[in-house]
């Protein structure tokens, strides 16, 4: 019942903001043009289409806002006026009242914010789909940002997810590609990540882990800045962290005025992404421009700043190895290896012919090489790969959905910073070095060091275990004799079953003959 009401509400909002007109205006067909004239009732809406779409997504809730955030980074896929308007969803969602934020802080931490902090700004500095942020100053003088969860979020998300589950079930039953796309599994993954965002203690833990991954001990501190978590002021609905200052990565002109090399920034962004994915297997998965800043402080000028750690992705060793080999095969134009990897991983049926899959992948990817990022649309590449995959029954892997989403965000940011950035050439050297460190002598040495502690316990036991095994009585003849006995018993049982079945058949035939006389 809730799902039905939610669906009706979505249809009401779409009609209220005239989204039907927006959809029909983008279809170049005489029938669509005729329908457009009908729904307009002879006049076009006065409010711009981008504003109407943004307001509709805001009124529908956090899941739809997140959808708009992703769309805002893809100016190659949607009109510029819509992309500019949707960019406001990244940190300018209408805030909830400050007195509710103060009440939630007091309920979570046991005291009012004006008691906990030397100074607390009642007006939020940023408001997103899940929470809003207030600046504050601790009693020891440290400047912090306090993130407060929006009230009632869990109920809203549950209703939207129930609708998505119903739609996913319909797609799986009715669409030709429904089962292969695994829509219900994809929704289940989305469910996990959204509920993770509702627990700000989990987000604080993600922040702490990413900060360790880019600490001075790793030698990566010059690439990415992560705020420090103030654990004593954290709870499931409140997250307090170090205040970071910088320029939003989408404000390219401000970056240039601060003497920041945007071309180098674009290259470093790709490096940071691949480093998180392949070296750590733990990556920031919500990298839209509202969450990524660039430091303008003299000591850290030009360094990326990451914020909002509610959604992070993780990959298994199998996924990392498989993806790295696929990327390298693409970069080297080794399409035969790409086909082999798809078959070896089980993503396509084992009966697939390598030569056919190789030719299909080559036809999709070859036209895009040796071209700047401004001329490459990853969305178009993925669309063509999807169309090709239907022919070979390629199964969608739900665990990689976040990675695909993040890659689209990274591409969108790279396009803004440096339209001439070559995504392939920037990533290829890093992946080659990663594979060398993993598979070469350096990788072998690292694995030996990792397993040394276990070997130190097992090696002294090997002589005793070998001696005990050599002195063990030979059980081979006895085992063979027992197997022979079992075989004979089985044959005897089979003969008895044949006799019994014959007797039953004769009895049944006699009974039928007697009844028919």
UniProtKB/TrEMBL annotation:
The keyword Transcription does not apply. One of its GO terms (molecular function) is protein kinase activity. The keyword Cell inner membrane applies. InterPro entries: ABC1_dom, Kinase-like_dom_sf, Prot_kinase_dom, UbiB, UbiB_bact, UbiB_kinase. One of its GO terms (biological process) is ubiquinone biosynthetic process. The chain crosses the membrane at residues 496-515. Residues 119-456 form the Protein kinase domain. Pathway: Cofactor biosynthesis; ubiquinone biosynthesis [regulation]. Keywords: ATP-binding, Cell inner membrane, Cell membrane, Kinase, Membrane, Nucleotide-binding, Transferase, Transmembrane, Transmembrane helix, Ubiquinone, Ubiquinone biosynthesis. It comes from the Bacteria. Belongs to the protein kinase superfamily. ADCK protein kinase family. This is Ubiquinone biosynthesis regulatory protein kinase UbiB. It comes from Pollutimonas harenae. The lineage of its organism: Bacteria, Pseudomonadati, Pseudomonadota, Betaproteobacteria, Burkholderiales.
């Amino acid at each position: 019942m809730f799902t039905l009401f939610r669906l009706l509400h979505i249809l009401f909002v779409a009609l209220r903001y005239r989204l039907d007109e927006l959809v029909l205006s983008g279809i170049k067909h005489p029938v669509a043009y005729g329908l457009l004239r009908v729904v307009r009732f002879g006049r076009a809406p006065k409010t711009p289409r981008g504003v109407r779409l943004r307001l509709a997504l805001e009124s529908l809730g956090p899941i739809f806002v997140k959808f708009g955030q992703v769309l805002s980074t893809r100016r190659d896929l949607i009109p510029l006026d819509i992309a500019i308007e949707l960019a406001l969803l990244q940190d300018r969602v209408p805030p909830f009242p400050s007195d509710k934020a103060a009440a939630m802080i007091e309920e979570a931490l046991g005291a009012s914010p004006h008691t906990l902090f030397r100074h607390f700004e009642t007006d939020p500095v940023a408001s997103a789909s899940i929470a809003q942020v207030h600046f504050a100053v601790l009693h020891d003088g440290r400047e912090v940002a306090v993130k407060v969860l929006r009230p009632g979020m869990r109920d809203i998300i549950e209703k939207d997810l129930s609708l998505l589950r119903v739609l996913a079930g319909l797609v799986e039953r009715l669409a030709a590609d429904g089962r292969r796309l695994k829509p219900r599994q994809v929704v289940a993954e989305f469910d996990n990540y959204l509920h993770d965002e509702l627990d700000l203690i989990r987000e604080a833990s993600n922040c702490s882990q990413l900060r360790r991954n880019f600490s001075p001990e790793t030698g990566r501190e010059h690439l990415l800045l992560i705020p420090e978590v103030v654990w004593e002021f954290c709870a499931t609905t409140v997250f307090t962290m170090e205040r970071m200052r910088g320029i939003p990565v989408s404000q390219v002109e401000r970056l240039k005025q601060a003497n920041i090399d945007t071309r180098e920034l674009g290259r470093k962004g790709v490096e940071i992404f691949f480093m998180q994915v392949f070296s750590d297997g733990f990556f920031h998965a919500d990298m839209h421009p509202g969450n990524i800043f660039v430091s303008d402080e003299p000591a850290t000028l030009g360094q990326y700043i990451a914020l909002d750690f509610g959604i992070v992705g993780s990959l298994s060793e199998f996924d990392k190895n498989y993806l790295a080999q696929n990327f390298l095969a693409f970069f080297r134009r080794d399409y035969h290896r790409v086909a082999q990897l798809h078959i070896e991983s089980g993503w396509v049926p084992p009966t697939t012919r390598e030569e056919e899959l190789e030719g299909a992948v080559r036809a999709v990817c070859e036209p895009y090489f040796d071209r700047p990022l401004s001329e490459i649309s990853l969305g178009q590449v993925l669309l063509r790969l999807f169309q090709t995959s239907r022919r070979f029954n390629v199964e969608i892997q739900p665990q990689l959905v976040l990675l695909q989403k993040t890659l689209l965000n990274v591409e969108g940011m790279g396009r803004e910073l440096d339209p001439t950035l070559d995504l392939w050439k920037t990533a290829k050297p890093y992946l080659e070095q990663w594979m060398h460190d993993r598979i070469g002598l350096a990788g072998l040495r690292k694995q030996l060091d990792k397993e040394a502690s276990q070997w130190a316990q097992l090696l002294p036991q090997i002589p005793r275990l070998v001696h005990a095994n050599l002195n063990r009585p030979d059980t081979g003849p006895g085992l063979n004799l027992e197997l022979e006995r079992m075989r004979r018993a089985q044959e005897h049982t089979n003969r008895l079953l044949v006799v019994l079945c014959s007797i039953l058949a004769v009895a049944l035939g006699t009974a039928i003959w007697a009844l028919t006389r």
